[in-house]
Amino acid sequence: MNPQIALASIGGSGSILKYPLDVGEDKISGHQHFMIISEYEYKKHNNKGRDALFNFKQATQGAGSGEGFYKSVNNYALYLPAGSIKTQYSAGHSPTDFGFFGALLNTEANDIYKRLTAGAEGESALDFYTRAGSALYEELSPGVESYDFKTKFGFNIGEAIGALALSGDAEKASSIASISMRKQANPYTTLVFTGVKTRRQHDFAFDFYPRNDKESVEILKIINGLKAGMLPSLKKSGRVDKKIVEVEKNIPTSPLTYKVKEERTINGGGLSSAFFDYPRVFRINFFKKGGKKNEFLHKIGQSFISNLKVTYGEGEVQSFFKETGAPTHVKLDISFKENFALSRQSVEEGF
Fold first, then answer.
1. What angle do CA 24, 29, 328 make, to 5 degrees?
2. How far is Cα 273 from Cα 265, in angstroms, rounded to an integer?
């Protein structure tokens, strides 16, 4: 079976829930291309020096055999929903005003860095900072004598006097300096990379039209499995409280009653834990006919399910199979959100 072959190729194990039941099979028509959503459960481990969050491939190595950070628990082989196979990348850049001195330092930064690092090995802290001050002055000295440098000092003095006169109002102080010198400071604005703060989100919309009882049951298992994997678990303490109580019972074939003492459970299961266990994590791979990876599509790394919506029927129409009561149409909208930041290396690996 092609989904089983595909699962083995990514190191997964266990059974696979499928829709449609013949998804990925070698047929002239049908859903030959498919995706596998692999579900993993975090477990305790003794693997030191291995990265469970950012290197998911390393973290899941041996998942089927009980090794690694995660245990393979469920797999879902589904058709590729139209319009859902897409991805988006983003990187944060914020405008920052360098100012004149920042721009001046930036233009000379490379030469200053070379001077500071040259011969720094074995040097005392005092000698290093003495030499650092000398290097900064020598590199920036051409600018010290320049028209811009002197003007900037004058502008700063104007701002300082204005701030004193206006009790520290920086905006108005800058305006006073600008008017008095008939100049406006160049902010030397540039974009500064601030990191990858937005994680990729992948949204899929599946339409399930069961053709028989088996597919209805399979759809129910798929939805319930994904719902369970999305949510955290909450353990019970295991404590069972019992109490002796007096119970009144009827005497058979008589209107009379009698009382006996019995042991009853008062708090079966005990209190819930003060902590949630983390939800399951998922990874998604796309495959083509024969169970081979589709290298033309992106990979989806370690993700959580952030949203899941189930709709029964189309529009205002509700219809069910007469014998089982199963809906004739189920729509599943599901969102996966990656929990790590992408890098250039991630793209090189196919993400």
1. 80
2. 20
Residues 15 and 68 in one domain: yes
d(CA 207, CA 315): 13
Specify the pLDDT at position 345: 87
Residues 210 and 331 in one domain: yes
Q: Where are the beta strands (DSSP E) in 187-329?
A: 189-195, 201-208, 241-250, 257-267, 281-288, 292-293, 300-312
Strand partners, 260: 247
- Identify the pLDDT of residue 255: 74
Distance CA 199, CA 88 (A): 9
> Rounded to 5 degrees, what are φ and ψ at 255?
-80, -5
CA 341 vs CA 54, 85, 109, 297: distances in Å: 8, 20, 29, 19
Domain span holding position 149: 92-194
Between these two residues, 204 and 24, which has the higher pLDDT value?
A: 204
Query: Which structure tokens are listed for 228?
Result: 């369970």
Q: Please give the distance of CA 242 from its chain centroid, rounded to a whole number.
A: 45
Same domain, 214 and 324: yes
Q: What is the pTM of this model?
A: 0.69
Mean pLDDT across the chain, nearest whole number?
Answer: 78
Q: Which residue is listed with tokens 């008095």? A: 180
C-alpha span between 251 and 154 (Å, rounded) = 107
Q: What integer pLDDT is reported at residue 274 of this predicted model?
A: 76
Q: Please indicate, yes or no, if residue 274 is contained in any of the structural domains.
A: no
- The answer to whether residue 78 sits within a structural domain is yes
User: What is the pLDDT at residue 162?
Assistant: 61
Q: What is the rounded average pLDDT of the residues 163-192?
A: 68
User: Would you give the distance in Å from CA 33 to the centre of its chain?
Assistant: 26
